[in-house]
Design a protein that fits this description.
Layout (H helix, E strand, L loop, with lengths): L12 H16 L7 E6 L1 H9 L10 H15 L7 E4 L4 E6 L4 H20 L10 H19 L1 H13 L26 H4 L19 H4 L2 H19 L9 H8 L4 H22 L1 H20 L5 H11 L9 H17 L5 H5 L3 H6 L7 H11 L2 H8 L2 H7 L3 E4 L6 E5 L2 H12 L7 E8 L4 E6 L8 H15 L3 E7 L2 E7 L4 E5 L3
Parallel strand pairs: 1-3, 7-8
Antiparallel strand pairs: 2-3, 4-5, 6-7, 8-9, 9-10
Helix pairs in contact: 1-4, 2-3, 4-12, 5-6, 5-11, 6-11, 10-11, 12-14, 14-17, 18-20
């Protein structure tokens, strides 16, 4: 399944005028975005583009075909509808659905400009490849060449393995340097001393200009402590890796015994995973920001009287809530408006936070009118976790009627479990941290001195799902080609999960 980009069509003259008008309003309101190119597609083409993650020139794989079947059938059966697709690129590309009504097209175009502003200005996207459309085409041509050279089944099976591991990245790596720039060698003593065994290296002493002061300035306890440090530093130099690494895919690309084409395929999957990661980190903010601006543009500038009911119906559908699932559009836009209102009324700072009188808090209004400035600042510097952590307060939980839910064991029905603000915020943050997935690090590439791979799960109160964990370990084995081990905690006990190519095992071990 390879989509021909020529199947897309240009906008009608009416839509081109609408795009120009909405772009003008968006820029006048303060939005800043890359040039944006709109293309018109039918629902089959939209489903195909969406199945490829927004890139019709992406490499071929059965997973994309399966996603296409799901999306196209959902549309045909009236279960779902994709109104638009926009790509973080320079220039940005956006696809509009031909079957949309004119009011929907206006809404979608305004919505797209909100996304494009967010892509360009939010720090999470600062290190993304702005020419990813070209890069995806390059990835596709390389993988198609490997298919011709190696064989379709072998390449596709290896891609299956790589895609099952694509979440094993360090999503903050583009912004945080976790490793020293220079290797830790020759820090102590001279070069010749580095060649000696750690316990025989000369211990660095504090200078003493009087011989009789030597025992006071460099006492025996101090010298022993320095010797222990030398040994410890030497052990760190031998450790592989020296410190735990969150980016497991990078470790595999660098050290796994792979063929050249396999290493390249794994690096392609890793690169694409990092490109998509910021979208997962900012789903609530990004959608909330786009809804905020399309709502403002439509209601203040673009709606005709005859379009109001259709627009309101569309807006209600986008922000509809479900008892069992968080709607990022709804939470994002409502929290943005809540923040804007607070900063317009001066409802922030120590005095406001220390006020415990609900009536006084509701009536608090210093008329500072800093709301718009504040949400632009938030758009630039925050991701979903910091956005929720810093700005979701008890007042908002009450206004939005948020709650946590569980399943009644007797009836099997979903029921409200808690309306407590602390519980709601904690559950939200837990679901957003690392995309709700467990934190796994590589701690040893030569475990037991046998070339085995040792990973460690940072247990945070929740045990791993054993079927998922075992499947991941088995797929890691296919890349590492030697036994793979995972240290974790199960039911309060330290356990070591392992797979050696024959059968999985769970044994007692340090976590």
């Amino acid at each position: 399944m390879v989509m021909d980009p020529r199947l897309t069509s240009e906008l009608t003259s009416e839509l081109r005028d609408i795009v120009a008008e909405i772009e003008s309003h968006a820029r006048n309101l303060g939005l800043d975005f890359f040039p944006t190119i709109f293309e018109m597609v039918n629902y089959q083409q939209m489903s195909e583009i969406a199945s490829y993650g927004g890139f019709p020139t992406r490499y071929p794989h059965w997973r994309f075909g399966m996603e296409y079947e799901h999306l196209s059938k959902s549309y045909e059966y009236g279960l779902s509808l994709i109104y638009e697709m926009v790509i973080n690129n320079d220039p940005c590309y956006a696809y509009l659905l031909k079957s949309n009504s004119l009011v929907d097209q206006k809404t979608v175009i305004a919505h797209v400009y909100g996304h494009c502003d967010f892509f360009k200005n939010n720090y999470c996207f600062a290190h993304t490849n702005r020419k990813m459309l070209d890069e995806m085409a390059n990835h596709g041509s390389r993988i198609r060449r490997y298919i011709e050279e190696v064989g379709h089944d072998e390449v596709e099976n290896f891609i299956d393995v790589c895609l099952s591991l694509e979440n094993l990245i360090d999503q903050h790596a583009p912004h945080i340097r976790r490793e020293a720039k220079n290797p830790r060698v020759h820090d102590i003593g001279d070069y010749d001393s580095q060649l000696l065994a750690p316990d025989r290296r000369p211990v660095p002493k504090l200078p003493s200009h009087r011989g009789y002061m030597e025992g006071y300035i460099n006492p025996e306890e101090y010298l022993k402590e320095q010797q222990r440090k030398l040994v410890s530093e030497a052990e760190k130099e031998k450790r592989f890796p020296e410190t735990p690494r969150r980016d497991i895919l990078k470790f595999l690309v660098d050290h796994a015994p792979l063929n050249a084409w396999q290493r390249d395929v794994l690096s392609i999957v890793r690169e694409e995973a990092y490109y998509y990661a910021p979208q997962g980190q900012t789903k609530i903010m990004n959608e909330g920001w786009a809804v905020y601006w399309h709502s403002k543009i439509m209601t203040q500038y673009m709606l005709n009287d005859s379009e109001c009911i259709d627009y309101c119906d569309h807006y209600a559908g986008v922000t509809a809530t479900s008892g069992q699932r968080l709607n990022p559009y709804k939470v994002g836009v409502e929290l943005m408006r809540h923040i804007e209102n607070r900063w317009n009324r001066g409802q922030h700072g120590l005095d406001y936070l220390l006020c415990d009188d609900p009536a006084v808090r509701r009536a608090w209004d210093k008329k500072t009118n800093k709301g718009l400035e504040k949400i632009f600042e938030i758009r630039k510097y925050h991701n979903d976790i910091t956005f929720i952590d810093e700005f979701l307060d008890e007042d908002f939980c009450e206004e939005a009627k948020l709650f946590t839910w569980g399943v009644d064991r007797r009836t099997g029905q979903a029921v409200i479990a808690d309306r407590d603000f602390g519980a709601i915020k904690s559950q939200l943050l837990d679901a957003l941290t690392n995309f709700g997935q467990p934190l796994i690090d590589v701690v040893d590439g030569n475990f037991r001195n046998r070339g085995e791979l040792l990973l460690r799960h940072q247990h945070q109160g929740k045990d791993l799902k054993m079927d998922w964990a075992m499947e991941t370990i088995m797929n890691l084995y296919k890349v590492w080609n030697r036994p793979v081990n995972l240290a974790t905690i199960l039911e309060g006990e330290e356990r070591l999960i392992g797979y050696d190519g024959l059968e999985p095992r769970v044994e007692k071990g340090p976590a």
